[in-house]
Amino acid sequence: MSRLALSLVIGGCLVLGAGRAAVAGDYNGNFMFRVGVSAVKPDSSADVFLNGTRVAGADAEVSTQWIPSATLTYFFNKNIAAELFCCFSKHDIDGKGALNGVDLGNTWIFPPIVTLQYHFDSMNGFKPYIGAGVQYIAFFKEKDGALPGLKIDNAFGFALQAGFDMEIGNGWYLNAD
Known about the structure:
The chain has about 180 residues and is mainly β. The protein contains one helix and 14 strands. The strands form two sheets. An eight-stranded antiparallel β-barrel has the order 2-3-7-8-11-12-13-14. It has a two-stranded antiparallel sheet with strand order 4-5. Strand 13 (about 155-170) and strand 14 form a beta hairpin. The protein is elongated and about 60 Å long.
């Protein structure tokens, strides 16, 4: 089953660690640590099998979860950075179509994302950025629902990113991504 987890860091996230060096424009070798709230929204398309046979007209729907998350960004220079996003989330899986309303089970998802980012020059404390990268989506602790043998395949995906950091003073930033 292929999954794509979209992770959106919403406004109000505090950004730490770039500190005085980044504020002064010396980004080389600096790290930035962000904590926030993210939505993990898996792609819900699925082939549903029962006793090795595909159930015609059956699909699955996976819940969206809002969870605490963290990112670590390393600046190669003032414009180029690499970011690692990490979180864990638990999701319910329900049947759709021929299995509408059937509890298929639940699973935990670990969807780390690595992106290469381009940070535009700061404009009065406002610093937008874009990025692209890869994601590995790992499923674990799968628990059966009404049907036995829940199995979800791990997957790779692509990630696109756009966001900004807004300086609020003393090396602290607000971020939306």
